[in-house]
Design goal:
Helices cover 36% and strands 17% of the residues. It has a 6-stranded parallel β-sheet with strand order 1-8-7-2-3-4. The chain has helices at residues 31-36, 60-73, 89-94, 115-125, 139-148, 164-169, 171-184; strands spanning 21-23, 41-44, 77-81, 98-100, 103-105, 108-110, 132-136, 152-156. It binds magnesium ion. Magnesium ion binds at residues 45, 47-49, 136-138.
Length: 185
């Protein structure tokens, strides 16, 4: 994991899509460093962060790493924060994580990066946003959403191949462009 991303610029002066950390994968996230920041609650995206597409289980290496991480660093809770609408309880159970998914509020589907999606998580956990980290592969849903909610954020490289809708929407291309523009400033 790269140490504090653009640490020279205070978080309040950075665009919301710029993460605090960047890591190659979930296995590369430095949880000791994150715990030192006062983080107690881990919020992790599912698709392309914890699992590749078209897979129905988490890889044993990931389950083991997260189980050890929770014990070793004494985090209070492990949570999956996903925009996926399917039943994800199997993934949650395998790592003893709570699962947070989109919900309806007055005919509006509340999902990442919506502020209310993250508010519901902090309320349920009884947590301060500053005690939370959002880890995910999407700059908009995960990083922007987490930063906007006042959490720490880690951007990981997408695991395996992209979903068709990201290929069509050029999501990755736009992400790279946003970041490289920011670096040029
Ligand atoms: Mg994802």
């Amino acid at each position: 994991m790269k140490p504090l991303y653009l640490a020279s610029i205070p978080k309040s002066k950075r665009p919301l899509f710029v993460p605090d950390f960047a890591a190659e994968s979930i296995l590369d996230v430095d949880f000791a460093a994150i715990r030192k920041l006062g983080v107690k609650h881990l919020l992790i995206d599912l698709d392309l962060t914890l699992r590749k597409k078209m897979t129905r289980k988490l890889e044993p290496a990931i389950i083991e790493y997260l189980t050890i991480t929770m014990k070793k660093h004494g985090f209070s809770s492990l949570n999956i924060a996903s925009n996926n609408m399917l039943d994800l309880s199997g993934y949650g159970n395998s790592i003893k994580a709570k699962v947070f998914q989109p919900f309806w509020k007055r005919l509006v589907l509340i999902r990442k990066p919506h502020r209310l999606f993250f508010d519901r998580i902090t309320k349920t956990l009884g947590a301060d946003p500053k005690e939370c980290v959002m880890i995910g592969d999407k700059l908009r849903g995960d990083v922007f959403g987490g930063n906007q909610a006042g959490m720490y954020t880690v951007h990981v490289k997408p695991k395996g191949q992209d979903y068709w809708y990201d290929l069509i929407l050029f999501t990755r291309y736009r992400e790279r462009r946003s970041l490289s523009r920011h670096h040029k400033k």
